[in-house]
From TrEMBL:
Top-level taxon of origin: Bacteria
Domain called Thioesterase: residue spans: 50-125
Protein name from the UniProt record: Uncharacterized domain 1-containing protein
SUPFAM superfamilies with a match to the protein in the record: Thioesterase/thiol ester dehydrase-isomerase
InterPro entries, A to Z: HotDog_dom_sf, PAAI_dom, Thioestr_dom
Keyword annotations: Hydrolase
GO cellular component: cytosol
GO molecular function: 1,4-dihydroxy-2-naphthoyl-CoA thioesterase activity
Amino acid sequence: MSTIEQRVHNFLSILRHCQRLGMSVERADERGLTLKLPYSDAIIGNPVTGVVHGGAITTLMDTCCGISTVCFLPEFEICPTLDLRIDYMHPATPGKAIYGFAECYRLTSTVIFTRGVAYHDSPDEPIAHVVGTFMRMGKPGRNGMLASIDGGVA
């Protein structure tokens, strides 16, 4: 397992809501991240049709965009969500797993810009498009305080 894959698995493993939803890592490298959200009764928004609740897709894509920062940055940094925009193209198909792909496409000293798609079988047929921005707060320090991006304590 590559260093990036290990960092992504470690990050995902500490997010309790992702564990409860059964999310898993499908692929992680310097180009981006793909997570899988399995279909389950817990994510159904409409019990009559079995359609997945939009909040489950939002959770998948916020997590995917947020963790994609781990694929892009040379070291782990704390990067909370500043803004997330999701455009839904069509409802997810009942009974099918949903995949989320995200990549970082721009990095500044304070903000990381991400984009991605949620899909079933192909990213070329998206359920939703997403763009997200994440604040760079620095690396966690040994004493529990934040270390600034340049290495000092924030």
